[in-house]
């Protein structure tokens, strides 16, 4: 159950990034592409394994696996968890701010 919630937080981070990109760009394809590229980059950085993993939200996916296998998180799990939760809050506030500043799009038929 813990592994599910840890992985869920990584997913919520990606959704927040997608919402911010969607609010910032007119093209849905651009929003989705940017989100996928960022997810791939963050996951790739996780595979390399550096000392900065605690600041990488994708590190939560490795922690979810560790919870499934060993029943405990990896080094710096708590730091990564709270860092990611902070980023999630920032992403959603930034998306809210962008949506508030941009005029609503209307379709002309």
Span between termini: 49 Å
Unreliable stretches covering 5 or more consecutive residues: none
What is the helix content?
A: over 70%
Q: Please state the structural category.
A: mainly alpha
* Proportion of residues in extended strands: under 5%
SSE run? HHHH
Biggest beta sheet summary = none
Q: What value does the Rg take, in angstroms?
A: 16 Å
Total DSSP E strands: 0
- Please, what is the average pLDDT? 87
How many helices?
4
Q: What global shape is seen? A: elongated
What does this structure look like?
By secondary structure, the protein is mostly helical. The protein has four helices and no strands. Helix 1 packs parallel to helix 4. The longest helix has 25 residues, at 77-101. It is elongated, with a radius of gyration of 16 Å. The model has no long low-confidence stretch (mean pLDDT 87).
Short key terms for the protein model shown above:
109 residues; 4 helices; 0% strand
Summarize the structure.
Helix content is 73%, strand content 0%. The protein has 109 residues and is mostly helical.
Give the SSE layout.
Layout lengths: L1 H23 L3 H21 L10 H11 L7 H25 L8
């Amino acid at each position: 159950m813990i592994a599910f919630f840890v992985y869920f937080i990584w997913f919520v981070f990606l959704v927040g990034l997608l919402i911010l990109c969607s609010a910032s760009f007119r093209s849905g394809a651009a929003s989705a592409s940017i989100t996928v590229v960022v997810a791939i980059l963050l996951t790739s950085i996780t595979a390399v394994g550096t000392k900065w993993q605690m600041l990488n939200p994708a590190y939560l996916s490795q922690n979810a696996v560790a919870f499934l296998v060993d029943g405990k998180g990896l080094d710096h799990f708590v730091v990564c968890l709270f860092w990611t939760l902070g980023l999630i809050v920032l992403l959603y506030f930034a998306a809210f701010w962008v949506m508030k500043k941009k005029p609503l799009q209307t379709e002309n038929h």
